[in-house]
Amino acid sequence: MIAMEVFMDIFSLRKQGFSMRAIALKLGIHRNTVKKHLESSMLPSYNKTRRKSSKLDPYRQLVQDLLNEDDYKATWIYDRLRNIGFTGCYETVKKCVRRLKEQNTRLAYIRFETEPGLQAQVDFGDFQVREQDGSSTTISAFVLVLGFSRGMYPKFPVHCNEAGGFTANFW
To answer: What is the Cα 70 distance to its own chain's centre?
Structure first.
């Protein structure tokens, strides 16, 4: 569809005596477009056409459910759909998956904030450290993260007992 200004220019140039070919060249459009608008003399309008049904339509909910379950790739989803009778092409699945993933990434979440001194999170972990002589040693870590400031308080205990607790001796 052409813009209203171009439509008006077609009639203006025609009244000035330009040929259809010259108008098309001057406006940078095809001469058949110029001819169509000169013959119809109606304002250009956009008529929205109804979308054709896709071979993927019966499987759309399944694709959505799979993407809600995990961040699967389109190739994996395409293979699963083929196994249950989908006869469409991979490009159709790829476009659908891309559109659904874009919608999912647009979702915004409210950040969880805490008041100062109200909450902290604790985590324990083991790390393998390679010594200078080539041997490796396991070091345990205790990390406390403050909820408000996100400040970290790490400690490295010398020993851990088998019940999962730490001894009082810290480095």
So the answer is: 14
Against a cut of 0.90, is the pTM above it?
no
Structure tokens at 10: 């077609």
CA atoms of 57 and 72, how far apart (whole Å): 19
Q: Which two tokens stand for residue 5?
A: 């200004």
pLDDT by residue, tens only, the chain of 171 residues: 678 888 889 989 999 999 999 999 999 999 999 999 888 867 777 777 887 888 989 999 999 999 988 888 999 999 999 999 999 999 999 999 999 988 877 666 777 778 888 888 888 888 888 888 989 888 888 899 998 888 999 888 877 665 455 554 544
Residue found by looking up tokens 């119809």 in the block: 40
Sequence-distant contacts of 107-110: CB under 8 A, at least 24 apart? none
Do 103 and 87 form a contact (C-beta atoms < 8 A)?
Answer: no
Sequence-ordered strand ranges (E) for 36-132: 120-130
User: What strand order describes the sheet that includes 120-130?
Assistant: 120-130, 136-146, 152-155
Q: Give CA–CA dist 171/166, Å, rounded.
A: 12
